[in-house]
């Protein structure tokens, strides 16, 4: 019995010494990724300048008449075009309007009487009872009464206009950001009532050296940078006159409500604007999502032959929309991982979910004649 036990133990020892491998763990499945291609894009050297977000509709709304303020909108309240911002005491204007209506009714009655008198005089002249001179006098009086009636109508319209002007109305949709007068104060003719700003009509205003006046045109591309994120835009206004003191000219471009919401920009926000300062050059570009930034540097994950991830260090340059200029061991057409690269290791097999989506080319400058 002892021999059998010793044999079994010896057999197990020999198997262990022979290095018979245990069952291998299952192979890790390929990582699913999305890709985009390296492209050639145009990048122009940029002159960076500070800019400010402003509203295209920003007004200190003034009163057209003078009077005591009885109502005024609260700061922060939203008003629609045509709605009242403030109301002045209109008691005097209502009295004037009533007086004008009474004058109009009186003159209308006088004119009706003269017209009837003219009809009677016409009959009497035909019958030879009175002379034509008397008829001429009645006709002249009727014409004067007609002129008086026109003047009374104008006076009534003026009274009604003053009554309407007692309410200072919003010239556009906006937010009341400042009250320039308070309830109970007397408002002089033409004095501002409140500052009204349309927060849905935003634009960026910046300045560039006057030496770029011959190069910049409406429609040229510019880059807006906010909190480290960049976006591409087109110039709407290039004021071709430089300031004598600063030697700079003003540039403007619009922000859609969606763009303002995505960037969190509001009126008065400070931004950086990149303005093309030279002719564009062609360079390799990759989507911004392809860049993996680490402490040791920036790299991209290229899908090499056999669908294997390969780490490629790169240096970044200018940006044009969602594309970023890169310098490194890349060629146009290389497939780069844009989704799923966070935990991807060099040498790991991948499964491309989209078959390689080419990146869109974003131009930063319009070709010049």
Automatic annotation (TrEMBL):
<feature type="compositionally biased region" description="Low complexity">
    <location>
        <begin position="352"/>
        <end position="369"/>
    </location>
</feature>
<feature type="domain" description="YknX-like C-terminal permuted SH3-like">
    <location>
        <begin position="283"/>
        <end position="352"/>
    </location>
</feature>
<dbReference type="Pfam" id="PF25973">
    <property type="entry name" value="BSH_CzcB"/>
</dbReference>
<comment type="similarity">
    <text>Belongs to the membrane fusion protein (MFP) (TC 8.A.1) family.</text>
</comment>
<dbReference type="InterPro" id="IPR058637">
    <property type="entry name" value="YknX-like_C"/>
</dbReference>
<feature type="region of interest" description="Disordered">
    <location>
        <begin position="348"/>
        <end position="369"/>
    </location>
</feature>
<protein>
    <submittedName>
        <fullName>Efflux RND transporter periplasmic adaptor subunit</fullName>
    </submittedName>
</protein>
<dbReference type="InterPro" id="IPR006143">
    <property type="entry name" value="RND_pump_MFP"/>
</dbReference>
<feature type="signal peptide">
    <location>
        <begin position="1"/>
        <end position="24"/>
    </location>
</feature>
<dbReference type="InterPro" id="IPR058647">
    <property type="entry name" value="BSH_CzcB-like"/>
</dbReference>
<feature type="domain" description="CzcB-like barrel-sandwich hybrid">
    <location>
        <begin position="59"/>
        <end position="193"/>
    </location>
</feature>
<dbReference type="Pfam" id="PF25989">
    <property type="entry name" value="YknX_C"/>
</dbReference>
<keyword id="KW-0732">Signal</keyword>
<dbReference type="GO" id="GO:0015562">
    <property type="term" value="F:efflux transmembrane transporter activity"/>
</dbReference>
<dbReference type="GO" id="GO:1990281">
    <property type="term" value="C:efflux pump complex"/>
</dbReference>
